[in-house]
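In full, the data.
>
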Amino acid sequence: MILYHSSDVSVIRPDIIHSRDYLDFGKGFYLTSIHIQAVRYAQRFLRRQREAWLNTYEFNFNPSGWKILNFSKYDKNWLDFVANCRAGKDITDFDLIIGGIANDKVIQTLDRYFDGELSEIETLGLLKYEKPNVQYCIRSQRMLDECLKHIESKQL
């Protein structure tokens, strides 16, 4: 499977160390299978007067050998997991998490939920109208090393 990672640098050898804390699925290397999504995300670097790179990888793995969590939609399980990760309370040890991105509209809804403005039911009601994008968060260095092969990096 081909996956993309947008950055302000070429990333030939991805690692977990450079990941930020408190992201949607915790600390990890984030990718997407949707080319246009990756290009749009890279454009945020250009808007900040920085370089933008689209890094392309081949991702091959046998699911039975890894601990994987897959969210197929924005639901209570996704909401609870993202809330825990963004609050720094995630203690899970998944190698890979796949699911929807908390884009700008989703983040605004989540912020209102975290601030107590929206109930869980109201939050899920708003999120059900969001079309999930896809993000792959590889959280183990072993999976990065064994399953992700750099193909190319293109400066945009």
